[in-house]
Every structure is written in C-alpha cells, then in structure tokens.
C-alpha cells in the first residue's frame, strides 16, 4: 500500500522539477548573447575620465611612448576612441586609409558636434609609416596637444583629438 | 568601455536534447503521480504512452537537427513540457469524470498533438525560408478574414457555449479563428513592411502625439471593424481582442509610434463600451466579471466562481495531482485548465507554467530582434505577441482581471485546432530563429571573391 508520504514526496518533487526546468532554461538564456563577446578593457588603456569635454593637454604627451625606430616595431593596427561620445569603440586601421568624421561615409562616424563631416584621415604610406592628415576641418585635428597643419607621422600610442573625441592608435 | 567582437554561434542542439529529455521526464513523473494518487498503482499504459510521447518529441528534434540546425534550442523543450502537462491534466479530468483512457478526451488530445507535430515538421520542410511567406501577403490576408467569417455561414457554422466560432463538417468540428491568427500575422507583417514608412513619417503633431494621415488610418479602421464584427456577430470577445491587439502591436513594432497604441486603445475601448451598451451577452460577461459572487451572477453561471474557489483550495503547493476536485468547474479541461492547474499544482506550480509562457514569448521576441529582414522581424514579433496576449486574455479571464472570454490556453487546453495552430506558430518561429542565428558567410571569403579580377575586364 502506498503511503501518503510517497505521494507528498512525489507531488512536491514534481514542483521542484518544474522549477528546476525553468531555471535550466534561464541558465541557457544567460549564455544567449550569441554572436557577440564583450571584453572589459584593462584600466591601463582608460584615460582619466573626470571631464571628457576638455581633455588635459598634458595627457597626449604623457601617453605617447618614445618614438620607435622606423621599421623596428610593427605599426598600429587599430584605432580606439578613449573619450567622447563614442568612447570604447574600436576599429581596425586599413592601409588604404581610415576616414574619421561625422559623415556616414566615414569608417568611424563620430557623433560629435565639434567634428567636421570629413575630418581627418589615417593612412599608410608605401614605406609602411602611418600618417595622419587633417582634411581641412573647421576645428582642427590635434596630435597630442599640437594642431596639425600638414600630414604628420603617427605610431602606436599616438593620441589624437578630434572635436571632443580622444582617439588612440594601438597595436 | 568594452570591445564587442563576434564569436562563432553555437547551434545548441545538444542543449535542446537534454532539456527535451527533462521535459518528457517531468511529464512522465506527473503521469505516474496522477496514477498513484488516483488508483494507487502506476498506470498500465505508462511505458507505451511515455515512449510514444518521447518518440514524437525526439522526431521533431531530429528534424530540427536536419532542417534547421541553428533554430532556437529552447522553444521545443518548453512547448513539449506545456503540451505534456496539458495532456496529463486532461487525463486527470477524464478520470474524475469517470472516462476510461480509451474513450477519454486525453487520447484524442494525444492524437491531435501527434498530428500537430507532424504538421509543424511539414511546415519546416516546406517553408525553407520564412521570406517566401511574404509572397502570399494578400492571399494570407484574404484567407484569414474568410476563416474568421466562416463560422457565420449558415450550414457549417456552429454555435456552442454562446459563441459562434466553430465550424462543423460531419463529425469534425474546428475553430478556424486559431488558424486565422497565423494567417493574419503573415498578412500584417507583409503589409506593414511595405507601408511602414508612410505610416511612421507622414502626419501632423497634435498634443505631442504624431497623428497619421486620414488615408493611412484606413487599414486600422478596417481591422477595427472586422474585430468588432467578430465581437458582435460571433459573440467572441477573446478572439476580437486578440486580432485587434495583434494588429495594433505589429503597427507599433513597425512604426515605433506610440500614437498607434493610443489610437488603437481608444478605438477598442470605445467599441467595447458600445458593444456593452448594445448587447446582452456582453453585459452578462461584465456582470460575471465585476460581481462574480452576487446571486444574479451565480444564477447565470457559477463557472468563474468555482474556478476561483478551486484555486483557493489549491493554495501555495496545491492538493497534488489527482487529489483536488477541478472537475467541479465546467469546461475544466479547456477554458478553465489554468484554475485546474492552480488547484492541483498550487500557486508554485501555476507560476512555473506562467514563467514557461514568459520564456516562450521571450524566445520569440529574441528571434525577432536577431533576425535581419524586416518581414521576419515583424512576423516573429507578431506571433510571439499573439501568444502573450492570448495567455493574458485566458489567465486574466479566469482570475477576474478582465471579463472572461472563451480562448484556449496555448498548448495546455484541450482542443485540436488550437494545438495545430500553436505548433505551426512554433514551427514558423523556429524557422525564423534558424535564420537569425545562422552564422554569416565568412567575410574574408567574400572579400577574396570581390577582389578577384574577372576574366573579361582586367582591373590592373
């Protein structure tokens, strides 16, 4: 003869199993962010974010490593936005040129009121050096703290400012 | 401050298999529990029925592995569990009403489930890409409205329980509204993907709401009239709410404009209030809703009151399967299956079921977010919203949140047409999610193809 105890265990066990199933499904959901992987970047790359509006001018100089001998080190491979509306964005550099600005045709489309439509370009010359060129922008392109007037050489670690956006070249 | 990069998606078929075995196991345990509680022994046909159900579920799983490798791994286990729990509860009501398994409703429901799974797999075979459904936008719309109006036809239309939503052909009776739900979702998705720009951009702004132009209002007015027609002539408040809600929700998804929801709600409330003033059966429903325990209402129908009493008797952990009296409520195996679960599994069990519904809808909406084409997005969002709305109407009806209307709880309630339609709905969602989760073709390969010089025109 079946005891009441067995039945009680069965019916409570059924409820427990039901909820275990629900939690198993939720567990699968947790790993559901398929297609993308989000990596937190180390704090070493993050500049002081006290006031991203006016980046301290000394920052660029301090962050810039000593200039590498030409050809001895591999050049930069990606452009990282370190401060400003798009901060955290990363995009790979292309040898043919990476266009930065507000216009949708740019590779990096800035959401920055102080940037021009086609603001600046980063490209690689035939001998492998990377150059930064200002495309006659209204508010200028800064390499470190100096406004550039003609194409200038850049390397991994160079810090640029376009409008309110700080960019860093990284290897 | 983070880098978002893409990883190769996993198909998740093995996860699905494990969860599927768990779901069938839970259903089996519920069946054993029921047998032990009612007769004191494990029911005789347990092995055959359990293996049969497992076989049906595994067959669907194999078809998914074969035809839709990247389909969402959670939809099938959830639906299998819900359908199985419904079968056990229907069998339980059969026992209480003194029906054997051979002549009970449960066996018929099991056969309908198998047929529904067969049709769902057929849908997966035939519809290789959900976008081909877009070609049948207007056909689906016309067919949907015809199906909606079919119960009004003189010979085949059939009135049961005060609602004229059945058609009867010989011994078979069918509720065409359930299938119309699918067809209309296809129609709305196809129509809105074409016209959403006109619907969302044009119009003038009044009091912060951007009102659409009068000519763009046409479709919503037609949908409103059709749903009111269903309400008035078929006396079916639930389906009417379902169709109109589906259309307004899909309009909102397509246009992102809150004004459509405001207009839709206003229209529906106005229409429902007019119907309340004009028709006796709507007044009865409202009386039963607001004054369930008044002598007047109990004289008309004590169904809702008994359902509530049943849930109260179940309490937190329930009486246990086979130990309550859900059969006291009229229609305990279809419209009132939710109170039956509330009584025997308690609030804890009922909430597990509700969470399963929530997860099912979430998977549908996630599919909608993930898919890349506008038609698929709208269709997935509409189908999952219709599931959610149907659950709301059913559960809200039996718990006195809204007036009680005759809709079936998806996958749980007894009823072949509902099962067929909802399994097909899941099959379409699986097809869309397969598309959404399928990895993109390798970009480098594409680039290599793009750079290769053609034979005829030399680039360099």
Structural description of this entry:
The complex is a heterodimer of chains A (171) and B (460). In chain A, a hairpin with a 6-residue loop joins β2 (78-83) and β3. The N and C termini of chain A lie far apart (76 Å). Chain A is built from 2 helices and 12 strands. In chain A, 20% of the residues lie in helices and 27% in strands. The radius of gyration of chain A is 26 Å and the shape is rod-shaped. Chain A is α+β, with helices and mostly antiparallel strands and 171 residues long. Chain B is mainly alpha-helical and 460 residues long. Helices cover 67% and strands 5% of the residues of chain B. Chain B is built from 16 helices and 6 strands. Chain B has a 3-stranded antiparallel sheet, with no helix packed on it. In chain B, β3 (163-169) and β4 form a beta hairpin. In chain B, α4 runs parallel beside α15 (416-437). The A-B interface holds A 1-2, 6-8, 10-15, 17-22, 24-26, 28-29, 32, 34-41, 46, 87-88, 90 and B 1-7, 9-10, 12, 15, 19, 22-23, 25-26, 29-30, 32-33, 36-37, 40, 73-74, 77-78, 81, 317-318, 320-321, 323, 345-346, 348-349, 352-353, 355-356, 359, 362, 366, 370, 437. β1 of chain A pairs antiparallel with β1 of chain B.
Could you provide a short overview of the structure?
Chain A is of the alpha+beta class and 171 residues long.
In terms of topology, how is this protein built?
The complex is a heterodimer of chains A (about 170) and B (about 450).
Chain A: H1 4-30, E1 37-40, H2 57-63, E2 78-83, E3 90-92, E4 98-101, E5 108-109, E6 120-124, E7 130-134, E8 141-143, E9 146-147, E10 152-154, E11 159-162, E12 165-170
Parallel strand pairs in A: 4-5
Antiparallel strand pairs in A: 2-3, 2-12, 4-6, 6-7, 7-10, 8-9, 8-11, 11-12
Chain B: E1 2-5, H1 13-38, H2 46-67, H3 75-96, H4 105-126, H5 137-149, E2 157-160, E3 163-169, E4 172-174, H6 176-201, E5 204-206, E6 209-211, H7 214-233, H8 237-255, H9 258-278, H10 280-290, H11 295-300, H12 303-314, H13 337-370, H14 374-398, H15 416-437, H16 443-451
Helix pairs in contact in B: 1-2, 1-3, 2-3, 2-4, 3-4, 3-13, 4-15, 5-6, 6-8, 6-14, 6-15, 7-8, 7-9, 8-9, 8-14, 9-10, 12-13, 13-14, 13-15, 14-15
């Amino acid at each position: 003869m079946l005891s009441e105890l067995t039945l009680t265990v069965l019916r409570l066990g059924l409820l427990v199993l039901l909820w275990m199933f629900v939690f198993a499904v939720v567990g699968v959901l947790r790993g559901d962010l398929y297609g993308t992987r989000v990596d937190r970047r180390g704090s070493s790359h993050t500049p002081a974010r006290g006031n991203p509006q006016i980046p301290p001018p000394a920052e660029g100089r301090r962050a810039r490593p000593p200039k590498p001998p030409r050809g001895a080190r591999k050049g930069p491979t990606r452009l990282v936005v370190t401060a400003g509306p798009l901060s955290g964005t990363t995009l790979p550099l292309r040898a043919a040129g990476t266009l930065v600005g507000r216009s949708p045709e740019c590779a990096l489309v800035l959401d920055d009121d102080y940037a021009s439509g086609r603001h600046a370009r980063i490209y690689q010359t035939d001998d492998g050096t990377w150059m930064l060129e200002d495309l006659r922008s209204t508010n200028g392109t800064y390499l470190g703290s100096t406004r550039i007037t003609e194409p200038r050489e850049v390397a991994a670690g160079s810090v640029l400012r376009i409008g309110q956006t700080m960019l860093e070249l990284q290897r | 401050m983070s880098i978002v990069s893409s990883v190769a998606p996993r198909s998740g078929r093995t996860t699905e298999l494990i969860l599927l075995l768990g779901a069938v196991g839970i259903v089996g345990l519920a069946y054993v529990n029921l047998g032990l509680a009612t007769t004191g022994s494990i029911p005789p046909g347990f092995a055959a029925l359990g293996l049969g159900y497992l076989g049906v579920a595994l067959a669907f799983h194999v078809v998914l592995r074969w035809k839709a490798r990247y389909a969402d791994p959670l939809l099938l286990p959830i639906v299998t569990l819900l359908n199985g729990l419904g079968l056990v509860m229907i069998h339980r009501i059969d026992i209480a009403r003194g029906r054997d398994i051979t002549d009970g409703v449960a066996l018929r429901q099991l056969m309908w489930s198998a047929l529904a799974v067969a049709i769902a797999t057929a849908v997966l075979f035939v519809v290789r890409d959900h976008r081909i459904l877009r070609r049948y936008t207007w056909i689906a719309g016309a067919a949907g409205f015809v199906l909606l109006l079919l119960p009004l036809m003189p010979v085949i239309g059939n009135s049961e329980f005060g609602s004229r939503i059945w058609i009867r052909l010989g011994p078979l009776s069918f509720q065409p509204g359930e299938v119309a739900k699918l067809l209309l979702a296809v129609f709305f998705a196809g129509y809105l993907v074409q016209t959403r720009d006109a619907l969302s951009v044009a119009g003038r702004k009044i009091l912060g709401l951007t009102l659409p132009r009068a000519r763009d209002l046409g479709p919503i007015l037609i949908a409103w009239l059709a749903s009111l027609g269903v309400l008035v002539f078929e006396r079916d408040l639930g389906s009417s709410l379902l169709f109109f809600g589906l259309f307004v929700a899909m309009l909102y998804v397509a246009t992102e404009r809150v004004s459509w929801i405001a207009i839709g709600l206003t229209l529906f409330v106005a229409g429902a209030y007019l119907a309340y003033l004009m028709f006796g059966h709507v007044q009865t429903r409202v009386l039963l809703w607001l004054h369930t325990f008044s002598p007047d209402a109990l004289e008309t129908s004590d169904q809702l009151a008994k359902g509530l009493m049943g849930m109260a008797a179940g309490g937190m952990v329930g009486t246990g399967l086979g130990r309550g009296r859900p059969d006291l409520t009229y229609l305990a195996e279809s419209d009132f299956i939710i109170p039956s679960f509330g009584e025997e599994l308690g609030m804890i069990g009922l909430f597990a079921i509700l969470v399963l519904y929530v997860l099912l809808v979430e998977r549908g909406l996630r599919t909608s977010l993930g898919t890349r084409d506008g038609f698929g997005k709208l269709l997935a969002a509409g189908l999952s919203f219709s599931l959610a709305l149907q659950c709301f109407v059913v559960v809200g009806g039996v718990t006195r949140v809204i007036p009680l209307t005759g809709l079936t709880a998806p996958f749980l309630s007894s009823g072949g047409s509902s099962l067929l339609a909802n399994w097909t709905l899941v099959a379409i969602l699986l097809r869309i999610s397969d598309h959404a989760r399928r990895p993109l073709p390798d970009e480098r390969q594409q680039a290599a193809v793009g750079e290769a010089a053609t034979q005829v025109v030399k680039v360099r």
